[in-house]
Amino acid sequence: MDKVFGSPSRYVQGKDLVSRTSEYIKPYGTKFLVLADETVQEIVANDLIVELENDDYKTEKVTFGGECSFKEIERITKIGKENDIDGVLGVGTGKAIDTAKAVAIELDVSLIIFNTLASSDAPTSALSVIYTEDGEFETYQFYNKNPDMVLNDTRVISQGPPHMMASGISDALATLIEATATHKAYGENMHGGKGTIAGLAIAEKCEQILFDHGVQAYEANKEKVVTPALEAVVEANTLLSGLGFENGGIAGAHAIHNGFTALHGEIHNMTHGQKVAYGIMTQLILENRSEEELERYIDFMLKLDLPITMKDLHLDEASDEDLRKVAEAAVKPEDTMTNMPFDVTADDVVQAIKAVDVYVKSFKQKYNVS
């Protein structure tokens, strides 16, 4: 099988990009469908529309419904067809921009992503995670091209909730762990090819940046200031992690995240990155990593207030049947647990999920961490 590497055509990052977006997107059209949820419209999308229209662009404002589902994609695609747009401008993060990708592909028009939180590595990728109307993971949908442009306004991102920055760091922290597993398994990356040297090298740099600057960036985000550490971590969370996971491949951590979406209740309100954090620890347990390595990751994630105990993930009262449901979903042959370099059963996953809780509680007691 061939090695495959993909990336967006352009990536732009800086403070106050709202006022400069119109000059960057000139090559991609003059009439854009601007997709954002109501909150993001108030934060930045409405201002962005004003800036674009002042520079003679035409816009069609569409409010995102909340789930990246086939039904929502169909609804917005219909609006795009009726308005004869040149491109889709997805504003926001996560599910909103995944929906924007799907709509742009359906319409065969340009795709611009204006990212508002460094909360995941979704913006640069050529795929969408599709959920049911109830928010349960359904499938990955892959595209034949990445976004034309990704814009990260670090001023906007610095104003966001700190737990979303921590979630993005968690999502990015999974990148090297999963790319390494995929490399060992000689598995497939997200382009349906084998991983590249470049993808693995980018994943390695991503993890280095996170450990060097992640806690500083999290603290800067709490104070809503743009610092060199925050700039570095925004790039790591978005560009480095995005290129690293897509070209390196994903494995156990995200498969376990997908398994968690099968549960309802409070866990359903946890962010993607928060659930990935527990998935990271579960994969490390499955790999039988050394105590030194486990403690390195545990210490880092606790400093970011990530939920890596059953109680923190609202699973302290989960039954064995609940955990079995998670595990069965995680090891489905169509998910990415197949990129682990050894066979993983549903029972292995259940035992590892429980072991994470034990290891983290032991770490807290050992080092007197509250």
Automatic annotation (TrEMBL):
<feature type="binding site">
    <location>
        <position position="272"/>
    </location>
    <ligand>
        <name>glycerol</name>
    </ligand>
</feature>
<comment type="similarity">
    <text>Belongs to the iron-containing alcohol dehydrogenase family.</text>
</comment>
<keyword id="KW-0862">Zinc</keyword>
<dbReference type="GO" id="GO:0008888">
    <property type="term" value="F:glycerol dehydrogenase (NAD+) activity"/>
</dbReference>
<comment type="pathway">
    <text>Polyol metabolism; glycerol fermentation; glycerone phosphate from glycerol (oxidative route): step 1/2.</text>
</comment>
<keyword id="KW-0520">NAD</keyword>
<feature type="binding site">
    <location>
        <position position="254"/>
    </location>
    <ligand>
        <name>glycerol</name>
    </ligand>
</feature>
<feature type="domain" description="Alcohol dehydrogenase iron-type/glycerol dehydrogenase GldA">
    <location>
        <begin position="8"/>
        <end position="154"/>
    </location>
</feature>
<feature type="binding site">
    <location>
        <position position="121"/>
    </location>
    <ligand>
        <name>glycerol</name>
    </ligand>
</feature>
<protein>
    <recommendedName>
        <fullName>Glycerol dehydrogenase</fullName>
        <ecNumber>1.1.1.6</ecNumber>
    </recommendedName>
</protein>
<dbReference type="InterPro" id="IPR016205">
    <property type="entry name" value="Glycerol_DH"/>
</dbReference>
<feature type="binding site">
    <location>
        <begin position="116"/>
        <end position="119"/>
    </location>
    <ligand>
        <name>NAD(+)</name>
    </ligand>
</feature>
<dbReference type="GO" id="GO:0046872">
    <property type="term" value="F:metal ion binding"/>
</dbReference>
<feature type="binding site">
    <location>
        <position position="171"/>
    </location>
    <ligand>
        <name>glycerol</name>
    </ligand>
</feature>
<dbReference type="InterPro" id="IPR018211">
    <property type="entry name" value="ADH_Fe_CS"/>
</dbReference>
<dbReference type="Pfam" id="PF00465">
    <property type="entry name" value="Fe-ADH"/>
</dbReference>
<keyword id="KW-0560">Oxidoreductase</keyword>
<feature type="binding site">
    <location>
        <position position="127"/>
    </location>
    <ligand>
        <name>NAD(+)</name>
    </ligand>
</feature>
<feature type="binding site">
    <location>
        <position position="131"/>
    </location>
    <ligand>
        <name>NAD(+)</name>
    </ligand>
</feature>
<feature type="binding site">
    <location>
        <position position="125"/>
    </location>
    <ligand>
        <name>NAD(+)</name>
    </ligand>
</feature>
<keyword id="KW-0479">Metal-binding</keyword>
<feature type="binding site">
    <location>
        <position position="37"/>
    </location>
    <ligand>
        <name>NAD(+)</name>
    </ligand>
</feature>
<feature type="binding site">
    <location>
        <begin position="94"/>
        <end position="98"/>
    </location>
    <ligand>
        <name>NAD(+)</name>
    </ligand>
</feature>
<dbReference type="InterPro" id="IPR001670">
    <property type="entry name" value="ADH_Fe/GldA"/>
</dbReference>
